[in-house]
Design brief:
The structure is a single chain. This protein is mainly alpha-helical. Among the domains are: 79 residues, no CATH class; 257 residues, P-loop containing nucleotide triphosphate hydrolases (Rossmann fold, 3-Layer(aba) Sandwich), CATH 3.40.50.300. Helices cover 58% and strands 5% of the residues. The chain contains 23 helices and 5 strands. The protein has a 5-stranded parallel sheet, sandwiched between helices. Helix 5 runs parallel beside helix 7 and helix 7 runs antiparallel to helix 8.
């Protein structure tokens, strides 16, 4: 039965489609509605939300702009949403800052805009501006616990008696923080205590933070070991050694992707920042392009690879490259440093036969410990328990051994510990592998203005240092079980 030809009935149907997860149909219906009745500001806003979820970022910006033009209530929220797209997905930090300042012009006490502005300053390495903005938030709301946690991440600590550590501990004793806020506070406290040399207390804080992170989801996050083992088995079967993986008929064209992957906390941000010393290389950060392509065209993965045709492979390669070009017009190379893209190395080589893959590695115990101290999204449920991290690490290592047997010449193992010990030789080999010219000046990267949106933001800006190598030695009693699980004898 046809829908009644009224805007209200079309809006209700678009809302129903969106709630059912039928994004494309909902977007089409909103666009049809607004072509006839463009005055509905809330529908422009809802269209922008859906386009953002669908990865249509330029279209979302335009729809949000129409919502503003048609006088939507609460325009500061629209400016905030535009800023999030600009900074998180399009890497246009200057425009994002303009949107945030417009939101604050409309509503000076709008704390979400202040929080995003402080985070933007932090991402860009503007420590003083970030600190001042977090302080401004905390003056207005002393219980802005996320702001307090991020403020603490800016600080250097030399003693566990630091007043800011005491402030974090006092906040954690309160009853009102949510589990997510408690997790943020706890991870900040663990980092501070570690820096101050209070290792037993730091580990206890990390354990509590991970428990709070688990409790922040409903139902609480749980790691499925069997599911990961089955997935790795399926990947190995889908991309066997000796198979011809190159299916795309599309010639190599700009921009070319430089893929950087590996475990979290293994040096991927450092590798990306180093490669971006070449002005022709654009840093895209942790892109979701490959997972989106898989979800849209290759589900269930990797079983659907058996049905991948040359035509579809060429289409997917073009979609991926077009997305890079929209984000970084004019770039010859763009880094895609999503760490868990190591699951997609077989797909990468199917779509881009000439792709170069930088695999970042680091001491196993240092890596696993750093993940345990890292405030990851709780959807990365393996990160919440040391034993689960160890299991995940073993499956990752099993899969990487397979990829390196299949694509050995196209994978470069960049070891963090080797890089900090011998930076010039190691970095030069990295650039040569990627087909980029080497200059010794590329090592002078710590003060570059590029935005960095990972937990490594401040470590990378300090340049190459060895403090993180061997960090696990401070936690030998706590890591004894993990060392045994990974077959590591540190005696």
């Amino acid at each position: 039965m046809a829908l009644a030809d009224t805007p209200q009935s079309l809006i209700r149907e678009a809302e129903r489609l969106a709630a059912a997860g039928e994004l494309a149909a909902a977007i089409d219906l909103y666009q049809s509605l607004l072509a006839r009745w463009p005055q509905f500001a809330d529908s422009w806003y809802n269209l922008g939300l859906l386009q953002r979820r669908a990865g249509q970022f330029e279209a979302a910006l335009a729809s949000y702009g129409q919502a503003l033009a048609h006088g939507i209530r609460g325009p500061e929220e629209v400016h905030l949403n535009r800023a999030v797209i600009l900074t998180d997905f399009l890497r246009r930090d200057e425009q994002a800052e303009q949107e945030l300042r417009q939101a604050l012009h409309l509503s000076p006490e709008y704390l979400p805009a202040l929080m995003n502005l402080a985070n933007l300053h932090s991402d860009r390495g503007e420590r003083a501006q970030a600190a001042a903005t977090y302080e401004r938030i905390l003056e207005r709301d002393p219980r802005a616990y996320e702001a307090l946690a991020r403020y603490a991440q800016l600080r250097e600590f030399t003693t566990p008696e630091d007043p800011l550590i005491l402030r974090l501990q006092a906040a954690l004793r309160r009853a009102d923080p949510t589990p997510a806020e408690r997790a943020a506070l706890g991870f900040a406290l663990a980092r501070a205590l570690d820096a101050g040399g209070a290792y037993r207390a730091a580990f206890a804080a990390a354990r509590a933070a991970n428990a709070d992170s688990r409790a922040s989801t409903q139902p609480p996050a749980r790691y499925d070991r069997g599911a990961l083992e089955a997935f790795v088995d399926a990947l190995i079967a889908a991309f066997p050694a000796g198979a011809n993986a190159a299916l795309t008929a599309a010639p190599a064209a700009a921009p070319q992707a430089l893929f950087i992957c590996g475990m979290f906390r293994s040096g991927s941000t450092l590798a990306e920042h180093l490669l971006a010393a070449d002005p022709r290389v654009a840093s895209a950060g942790e892109l979701d392009l490959l997972p989106r392509l898989v979800q849209a065209h290759l589900s269930p993965f990797p079983a659907a690879m058996s049905q991948l045709t040359v035509a579809l492979s060429t289409q997917l390669a073009r979609e991926y490259r077009d997305a890079l070009a929209r984000r970084h017009p004019g770039a010859l190379w763009v880094t895609d440093k999503r760490p868990d893209n190591f699951f997609y190395i077989g797909l990468i080589k199917s779509l881009f036969p000439q792709a170069r893959i930088v695999h970042t590695t680091r001491d196993a115990l240092d890596t696993c410990l750093s993940i345990y101290f890292l405030p990851l999204d709780p959807r990365f449920s393996y990160a919440l328990e040391l034993d689960d991290i160890g299991h995940y690490f073993r499956q990752y290592r099993r899969l990487m051994a397979h990829w390196e047997a299949v694509y050995r010449e196209d994978i470069f193992d960049l070891n963090y510990d080797t890089l900090v010990r011998d930076p010039r030789v190691t970095a030069q080999r990295l650039f040569e592998f990627c087909g980029l010219p080497w200059k010794d000046a590329h090592l002078d990267f710590a003060t570059r203005a590029a935005s960095i949106k990972t937990a490594s933001v401040w470590q990378v800006r300090e340049g190459l240092y060895r403090r993180s190598s061997g960090r696990a030695s401070h936690y030998a009693p706590e890591l004894a079980g993990l060392a045994a699980q990974l077959g590591i004898d540190r005696a």
